Amino acid sequence: MAVHNAARACGIDFGTSNSTVGWLCPDRPTLLPLEDGKITLPSVVFFNYEEDHSVFGRHALQEYIEGYEGRLMRSLKSLLGSSLIDSQTEVQGKALPFRHLLTLFIQELKQRADRAANRSFSEVVLGRPVFFVDDNPKADQLAEDTLAEVARQIGFKDVSFQYEPIAAAFDYESGIEREELVLIVDIGGGTSDFSLVRLSPQRHMLDQRHDDILANGGVHIGGTDFDKQLSLHGVMPLFGFKSCATMPRCRPASISTWPPAHHQLCLHPQSLDGTARHLPRCYRTESHGSAVQTDSGTRRTLAGHAGGDRQD
Ligand SMILES: Nc1ncnc2c1ncn2[C@@H]1O[C@H](COP(=O)(O)OP(=O)(O)OP(=O)(O)O)[C@@H](O)[C@H]1O
Ligand SMILES: [Mg+2]
């Protein structure tokens, strides 16, 4: 991106777990503080019914953990490329289109970035995974188009994209003195991307770097899968998993992490399956297993699995 655009352009890394916004300030790439001086905003929204407001990021997780009545939604990025994007859910008795949920979060990112940089960004480069959707170029394009549409809707006049691993390569490239072939491994919340790229100080300022991407690929395995294994093999056994004679009907794998999109997005008793809904009592005896816990109890237990909140 040309330096003369510095005042109007920002780069957004909308992540499954965490999001960041960077800009040229005016000629030095800088990450903007988005929450309490921190450069990341966890990609989480909490609709607090008691206080009648919505909160984002760490504050969202905090209110959720404190036990407020409400609804937590995370892994919003998984909406992109999913059929859910054209459907809606219910928040406080009202229909909330998932597309609008996505817009709410990205708009919040923009507003925070605008405030931190003391200007209104009108151009954006959005990071995108190598694949939003595997083996389905049409759905993949649709995911990118959705993100572009959201960006335009919240006020960005100029919208472009950069592959997430390439964005990481640019950063490394700024510090090298000769051409190198580099393997970029980007392990995210839901996906891991691998890219072999050609980097050099001479090519660093070129706008189009497509020819320097020599190979790339991605798999849908990320930090969330690690959390799941840790939960199943490290934590759950301490609470009786595989040791109780009378285990309830719940499926531990289904509650070991945030499951696929439709569950990740709907951490509300009505949206969880019959098993997870009874989670707080899952580790008691079967005679208590069917009792429905209070809303806040359910949320607290699920919140124990909330990961991806960087400490930086
Ligand atoms: N400070 C941290 N401590 C421990 N684990 C972390 C920390 N930050 C991130 N992680 C782990 O790394 C994973 C990836 O985090 P990251 O913020 O890079 O994901 P993301 O960019 O939001 O995801 P994606 O690129 O898939 O959209 C998280 O899901 C979490 O498991
Ligand atoms: Mg990422």
Briefly say what this structure is.
The chain is α+β, with helices and mostly antiparallel strands and 312 residues long. It has helices spanning 57-66, 98-117, 137-153, 164-173, 223-235, 252-255, 261-264, 295-303; strands at 9-13, 18-24, 29-31, 41-42, 44-48, 53-56, 70-74, 88-91, 94-97, 123-128, 158-163, 180-187, 192-199, 213-219.
Describe the structure.
- By secondary structure, this protein is of the alpha+beta class.
- The chain folds into 2 domains: 3-164, Nucleotidyltransferase, domain 5 (2-Layer Sandwich), CATH 3.30.420.40; 223-303, no CATH class.
- The protein contains 8 helices and 14 strands.
- The protein has helices at 57-66, 98-117, 137-153, 164-173, 223-235, 252-255, 261-264, 295-303; strands at residues 9-13, 18-24, 29-31, 41-42, 44-48, 53-56, 70-74, 88-91, 94-97, 123-128, 158-163, 180-187, 192-199, 213-219.
- Strands 1, 2, 3, 4, 10 and 11 form a 6-stranded mixed β-sheet that branches. A 3-stranded antiparallel β-sheet has the order 6-5-7, with helices on one face. The chain has a 3-stranded antiparallel β-sheet with strand order 12-13-14, with helices on one face.
- α1 crosses α8 (295-303) and α2 packs across α3.
- Residues 1-5 and 258-312 have low confidence and may be disordered.
Report the order of strands and helices: EEEEEEHEEEHEHEHEEEHHHH
Number of domains: 2
Question: In the CATH classification, which architecture of the largest domain applies?
Answer: 2-Layer Sandwich
**How big a fraction of the residues is strand?**
15-25%
CATH superfamily of the largest domain: ATPase, nucleotide binding domain
Give the integer mean of the pLDDT values. 78
Classify the secondary structure makeup into a structural class: alpha+beta
Please write the CATH class name of the largest domain: Alpha Beta
Largest sheet: 6 strands, mixed
The portion of residues assigned to helices is 25-40%
What global shape is seen?
Answer: globular
Distance between the termini: 27 Å
